[in-house]
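User: For documentation purposes, I need each entry recorded in a consistent format: the amino acid sequence on its own, followed directly by the corresponding structure tokens. There are two entries in this batch. Please keep commentary to a minimum and don't merge the entries.

Assistant: Recorded as requested. Entry 1:
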Amino acid sequence: MPSSFADRLAEAVRRLGSPVVVGLDPRWEELPEALRSRRGNNYESKAAAYGIFCREVIDVVAPLVPAVKPQAAFFEELGPPGMTALAEVIAHAHARGLLVIVDGKRNDIGSTATAYARGYLGRGQSAWNADALTVSPYLGDDSLVPFVDVAHERGAGLFVLVKTSNPGGGMLQDIVSDGQPLYRRVAEHVEQLAAGAAGDCGYGSIGAVVGATYPAQLAELRAAMPHAWLLVPGYGSQGGTAADVAGGFDEGGLGAIVNNSRGILFAYRRPEYAERFGAVRWQAAAEAATLDMIAQLRAETRAGRLGQA
């Protein structure tokens, strides 16, 4: 198995011919009624339902995608039971052969940043066993250095927030400084970190979060960060389409992984799947939505070149 996160991700994406990441964002009100009705309304019961739900999603998507991305906030909301459920979900994903990107958007300085990094990063080397972690850069370079050092030491990965998918992100990210937007300055720094330790696949293990909802900037940032993996949120429920994410891929169809959370998790609520599967077969709806997304990306982006000679 390749030692760096970048190479492990590249191997999985190529092997499956799929750049899809399934975001694990369990929301109580949107869980299938069968799960909610047999559970109480306390933290322990909700956490148990989240664990069951996420593990069953993992079971149907594991043969199709290279990674899952649990959003820590939904588990943290439930306190200690939720965090126990998160640990169990991460372990189950690993058991099914998936890479795990913990979406925690952590950041701090000095020994505190080091503690976050040591706690999260490294399968079999940390408490949380994350293969990768999302981090914020807005406390400056010295806040990223501890995460980068631990990631390199343990063969783990980072995804640094560069151009996020939310509408309000531009308030800070688009501010022009020295003739260029702030997000471009962050991108330059990420590219330096990625290029400094690029793996066999040509990409480094320090990547960037760039939203599907800004397709022009996504293409711009692909060119600006030729050694950085791009984690692309915003597909599906936030409005991003396969055409919107096309600019994130390199000529061989590599270099970007596209996250879809609600559109897959709660596909049974979408009209195109509700009629076919209904709430009783919600896992089948999640599987179908994943297959449809993979097909769309293969048809409308360079991801269709994956696995070709």
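Entry 2:
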Amino acid sequence: MTLALTRRTALAVSLAAFALPGAGRAQTREIFEMSLGAPDAPVTLVEYAMFTCPHCKAFHEEVFPQIKKNFIDTGKVRLVYREVYFNRPSLWAAMIARCAPADRYFGIVDLLFERQAEWSGAFDSEPMMKELYSIGRQAGLSDEEMEACVTDRDFAEALVAEFQKNATADGIDATPTFLIDGEKVSNMNYADFEARLNEALDG
């Protein structure tokens, strides 16, 4: 079953999803839109995904590689990846991913989904963060760098605000959800995605 929440519930949960207790306010980090593919690609695919969502993991591992090979790597489609924070662990995972330089972001996304059961199944923040730090180290981050990210309240609040702005504008209440050139579509198998993307390219 796809995770579905009312918009009111989603926003209420996201409002509570701030940084881990720690140093408090820190240097403000700029929030970038994460994307793959040619900036001038004729079609834009926006993906709203949550790192704790099993259906997002399935899409990332089973469908996305074919979309990337056949549409993104060929210059036909630009992917814009937008994180969803319906719970705190998804926010913490995103903060770890965004702590790295932008060119490592999607590599960390791969690891977060690959090891989803290991970190998202933890019952409290301490073992969960231990697993997330392990993923960050695989991407070359130091514990000090990750600590600075996940305890940065300004950073957390900025990410939540950006999520709320985009999710409200696009009516996002479930993950994964996609927009193809602005038209919202639900999760699909590759054959259906291929047909919809080709239709957008032909249009």
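Summary note for entry 2:
Residues 1-17 have pLDDT under 50 and may be disordered.
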